[in-house]
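SEQUENCE, STRUCTURE TOKENS:
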Amino acid sequence: MMSADWAAAACEAWNADEVLTRELVASDWIRNDKDRGFKVMQLYRSDCGDAPTAELRVALVEGEARCVYGGAVETHELDKGADYVMHATSERWLEMGADEYGPMKAMMLRRLRFSGPYGEAMGNMGPFKNFLLLVGKVPGSVSSCP
């Protein structure tokens, strides 16, 4: 989980989720890309180190918020006004992926930590929940670190 291969599969799962592809357009989330044409989300399991190991890039494609890249971390300069870095322990990622609790509880109890545009994230809790549920849908092992 949170490997380059896992991120590629998560990208495919993103594109199959109508909440992510449509609601993130309706809320204008996808348009906050700092004129680069994409937003970046980097992820990692904090019990495996303190640096992102997976990256997703999302862009407006044919009227939908589509994942256009899932893989190893490639973006080395993030824009904190548009991009996100999220991390949690493996145990917490699994809990969120199993829908044991949503993003609001995860952030309030600091089970999920992130950097990025906080207000934007708070305004997109519905789609953000679907993003966290991808962790439970995309197969991945926590028996070793990526």
The chain has one domain: 4-136. The chain has a mean pLDDT of 96. The domain at 4-136 is CATH 3.30.1050.10 (Nonspecific Lipid-transfer Protein; Chain A). Residues 71 and 99 are 24 Å apart (CA to CA).
